[in-house]
């Protein structure tokens, strides 16, 4: 029979409508009269899935038939957000579906609100993984995302009396229409136990790992629909379950646990996402999570490889590429060695040659507290065989490579060793990653330079070609087409409809940046987006804000290095100026924050509290005539970002230079026409290169100046005493001005900035930051000037398409071929 063509696959409005109603009845078991919005949403998703599955099957058949090389993206986090509108856009079904639902008396945008976010990530690193799998499918690259099927994603944030409260996130409590369970691909994963040395069949010694426990890994597949709908790849997430097989002999030696506890323990592994971002707690469960998903994924890859190639591993490195998204999946390296050597009987050298060709590693942070280290004792308990393998890798590396390059140099050996010697011996996952990977990349030019020069200088000397850069990007399908439909439609008109695939096409808009009519269209759209956000702010917080004000937005995880506290003290300074002089000349501003703090990060939570207390005081102070408003949006997440970003006038990217590896929110905000107020850090530097320095408000110390100031010995008191406004603002924290009757509730912030030494140089950058804000304010008063800058920012962000990032990965690291499906 003739294969269906693309056109046969494309549904028209009536077919889609019929399909939705059919699913409402036969899949959801309800009727048009009774159905809840949630049932309508699920019926719509089911109708869309008919399209998705057809393409998924074709993609899998094509990849199998052509036996293509594929990239396997290993990540502990995939921050997918919602999928309905994304899938509809990528299948070119969005407006068809909109019309079909209208005829049924429903609004698609309302139904989309029924979908819980898939919040299986903390922040930048997890969202990057989600953008990357979108781009991989869009560019028709064979790719699989591998991760964990957390029952609870990142906590839901409530604000009570100004403080963050964490509530469990139950994204799949009522079922998720996008995931498919694949019982046929279940895996069994060993843990704990001991290693025995035995005589192998072919003579010589062999290692046998007798596991103390076995856990079942159940895969759930999320189809990843490329834009244009040709390739549908999968994101495969592993859920842990108790295994029915159980080694009682081994286990009894360690003690008896009843089977209920057994089951609960097994299910704990994929129960919840660790809510830390940039601080490593070194917890046993997290190591087990990492091993669990890596081991499941390696087994899955092996099974697929052996189905075609049997036990001939000579093609393995040509077929399989694995990208490690930070060090979280590093244990995949010794796991692949274990499988090849212990289970497939390869000799060490053959196995190692395969291994280091297969893996590559992306570094996402230089913060020392984020660099993963596991105690040797914990490692030995959970993964005894892997520790032996790590020792072997280390011995060969130090004995051969390091000794040859730096003969007799024990200082360098100690520094490069995978094992950190000290009171507690530790396994350094970063070093293992570098040693076991073909390529190591940073995520923006400046960051990659620092990875090479400051973090891993000796490794760079040893392997000059190993270190490279791939600047991050974001998918323009979600972060412009779907979230900002009016601007997307304007761009369609002006530069044609190719820009969602070729974002560089937006450069064609630059020539209209001075055009009055175009400026007006552009700013009218911004205005509409702001008006929509005004309603969301009112609904979520009760705060009334005016769309005439400048919307100044800082959205990102709460961390001292990201310096929400700098924004905070500057708002306090503005407030003081307004109180001192009610005619103080400034355009009305709304400062809007969205941010979650790690539950154990005390100071970060205090900063959230301070923002909320400041907001209460400022928003209710009639003396300042509504010139200043402060809004803290609770529960910042992907779906909220999609509403905030199109409404931003100003984008706050104010990290201490050298600390923000890249940032990706900076790209999304600029793409939607916000003007960046930022430091020369991460990808801000490249944003300024693209947009032109005159269209951004850059301030503060650069990386070299930060290093120099720290080397000289930074003393925050110098700035405190030299700047009377700054001093007054900091002293305010000790009063009860913002916390009536409770003086000192905000003092921890002042303390961290003075006694605490202000490690992120907040006070050093304060004056420059304040000036940058004045500059921005003056720009805004000239509507034509502002419109021009906003347009140019948006139009020049083509470089930050995640398709470009993926193409860089393909050329510099993965060496993949595109595979046409259809
Ligand atoms: C560390 C840990 C430590 C253990 C607990 C769980 C956990 C989760 C995440 C992390 C590291 C997070 C690193 C990270 O998110 N880096 C961000 O990566 C973005 C994408 O490359 C980049 O844009 C941001 O600048 C960078 O901070």
Automatic annotation (TrEMBL):
<dbReference type="GO" id="GO:0008184">
    <property type="term" value="F:glycogen phosphorylase activity"/>
</dbReference>
<dbReference type="GO" id="GO:0030170">
    <property type="term" value="F:pyridoxal phosphate binding"/>
</dbReference>
<dbReference type="InterPro" id="IPR011833">
    <property type="entry name" value="Glycg_phsphrylas"/>
</dbReference>
<dbReference type="GO" id="GO:0005980">
    <property type="term" value="P:glycogen catabolic process"/>
</dbReference>
<keyword id="KW-0808">Transferase</keyword>
<keyword id="KW-0328">Glycosyltransferase</keyword>
<keyword id="KW-0021">Allosteric enzyme</keyword>
<keyword id="KW-0963">Cytoplasm</keyword>
<comment type="function">
    <text>Allosteric enzyme that catalyzes the rate-limiting step in glycogen catabolism, the phosphorolytic cleavage of glycogen to produce glucose-1-phosphate, and plays a central role in maintaining cellular and organismal glucose homeostasis.</text>
</comment>
<feature type="modified residue" description="N6-(pyridoxal phosphate)lysine">
    <location>
        <position position="668"/>
    </location>
</feature>
<dbReference type="InterPro" id="IPR035090">
    <property type="entry name" value="Pyridoxal_P_attach_site"/>
</dbReference>
<dbReference type="GO" id="GO:0005737">
    <property type="term" value="C:cytoplasm"/>
</dbReference>
<keyword id="KW-0663">Pyridoxal phosphate</keyword>
<keyword id="KW-0119">Carbohydrate metabolism</keyword>
<dbReference type="Pfam" id="PF00343">
    <property type="entry name" value="Phosphorylase"/>
</dbReference>
<comment type="similarity">
    <text>Belongs to the glycogen phosphorylase family.</text>
</comment>
<protein>
    <recommendedName>
        <fullName>Alpha-1,4 glucan phosphorylase</fullName>
        <ecNumber>2.4.1.1</ecNumber>
    </recommendedName>
</protein>
<dbReference type="InterPro" id="IPR000811">
    <property type="entry name" value="Glyco_trans_35"/>
</dbReference>
<comment type="function">
    <text>Phosphorylase is an important allosteric enzyme in carbohydrate metabolism. Enzymes from different sources differ in their regulatory mechanisms and in their natural substrates. However, all known phosphorylases share catalytic and structural properties.</text>
</comment>
